[in-house]
Amino acid sequence: MVTRRHIEVATGLSATLLGVVTAYGSLENGTGWTDFGPSAGYFPFRIGIILTVLGLVIAVKYGLTGRRRAPANLEAQAAGGAVALHEPTGLDERFLEDGALGRIASVFVPTAISAALIPWLGVYLSGALFLVFSMMTLGKVGVVKATVISVATMAVFFVTFEFWFQVPLAKGVVMPLLGIY
């Protein structure tokens, strides 16, 4: 059973790994001070060290928190109840309840597919397909209503980014074929 404690320790170790990779990668660019100011790796190296230290602190803290044995509760023991092995911290409860992984996947998988389609369909078309699919499956909205809302939303995004901000987003292969570029 995966508990919250496992996830906290894994998160701390992941932050540690990210910090180590960042600090090591910045060594190529120099971590000192030059005649013109800091080298390119000066700040990334320090941030990598901070991430490494904080990640280790998180991993150790949550790995050891609540691990000491609590004094036996005589009343609970006399009543035939369970005696706590450690103080209740909430860290040893199940991380995911039944069905939670399926709900997470129902959002993550379409998002990942939509992101993977951006090089071919562009941001606007893949976003519209994602919205239609999400509204129909998660929101139980009809096809016509989902399509109208998705097209309107992507049209607003298109006008906002392409004309107002003048920041062109990925059009993919399909939109230039349709004459939209």
TrEMBL record:
It holds the Pfam family TctB. Residues 13-169 form the DUF1468 domain. InterPro entries: DUF1468. This is DUF1468 domain-containing protein. The keyword Transmembrane applies. The keyword Lipoprotein does not apply. Keywords: Membrane, Transmembrane, Transmembrane helix. It comes from the Bacteria. It comes from Aureimonas phyllosphaerae. The chain crosses the membrane at residues 7-25, 45-64, 104-131, 143-165.
